Amino acid sequence: MKKKRSLPSILYLSLLFLFLFAPIAVLIVFSFNEGRSTVNLSGFSLRWYKNLFSDEATLQSLCNSLILAVSSAAISTVMGTLAAYGISRMRRKYFKGLLLGVTNVPMMNPDIITGISLMLMFVFTGTLLGLAESLSFATMLIAHVTFNLPYVILSVLPKFNQMDPSMPEAALDLGCTPVKSFFRVELPEIMPGVMTGGLMAFTLSLDDFVISYFTKGSGFQTLPLLIYGMTKKTVTPKIYALATLIFLSILILLILTNVIQSRDERKQMKIQKSLNRDPVADKED
Predict the structure, then answer these.
(1) At what angle do helices 238-275 and 223-231 cross, to 10 degrees?
(2) 104-135 burial string, b = 16+ CB within 10 Å, else e?
(3) 33, β-bridge pairs
(4) Does residue 207 sit within a domain?
(5) What is the pTM of this model?
């Protein structure tokens, strides 16, 4: 018997979603505004989308952000998956808890503290090595991988804990090497967590401002840094158009990820049901 939702709960959820998505809806609407006003709608137009695709500085900053986000997400996903694999195989609960506590520090640490500490470390290292410029694209990449790693580990580790430990053992008994067993048996099982962690790392890296501001080099500018520079003068509606395109792209990625995860979960449920089926009952049928 399904429980009916009460009117206060429906009203609360409606207000919550209105509070979350109303600013995004306003941004999307004004991205199609014909004039420059952010208050009055003067008509429907694709003017700002045309201006966006003709603005080389904005497109270059977007390209830099995508390169940085994809690179940091790929590196942190691989490193985080391997770290989660190692943590899940630990026997001593003390060291396992200690590592998990250390992993949570970058998540709980304020971004400004992380950015300043990384900047000081990069400048100190660059001075010791005698580099002309201590900050560059490489320092931003290392910084983004640093704060992305905990999110990937915490996304992948539960999948290792949920996995049946007899599956990799059976693969080893059947002649697989540990590496082949990982790629053929364990990796497909944890793939939803890997995809979630990679997508989260990508989105966190794409919109990061504080840590990027302290670790950026002189010749590399990301989109959040460009928009911050625009706020000192004025933000034109072409940024609304760009934000709309980014929002729709992330929304499509989230939908695809959820569809793939739900499909994998249904597949795993079917496999589990077939394994738990009573053979005596099957013969009687």
Answers:
(1) 150
(2) eeeeeeebeebbeebbeebeeebeeeeeeebb
(3) 44
(4) yes
(5) 0.79
Q: What's the structural domain count of the chain?
A: 1
Contacts of 155 (CB under 8 A, 6+ apart): 80, 193, 194, 196, 197, 200
> Which pair of tokens denotes residue 188?
């497909």
Report the number of secondary-structure helices (H) and strands (E) in the chain. Answer: 13, 0
The answer to whether residue 210 is domain-embedded is: yes
Give pLDDT tens digits for 44-99.
Answer: 888 888 888 888 888 888 899 999 999 999 999 999 999 998 888 888 888 888 88
The answer as to whether 185 is a domain residue is yes
The CATH code of the domain that includes 75 is: 1.10.3720.10
Residue 241 lies in domain: 34-270
CA 92 to chain CA centroid, Å, is 30
Using CB atoms within 10 Å of the CB of residue 268, give its burial: 0 to 12 exposed, 13 to 18 middle, 19+ buried: middle
Q: Residue 117 domain-assigned?
A: yes
**Residue 6, beta-bridge partner list:** none
Comparing C-alpha atoms, which of 254, 261, 135, 262 is closest to residue 202?
254
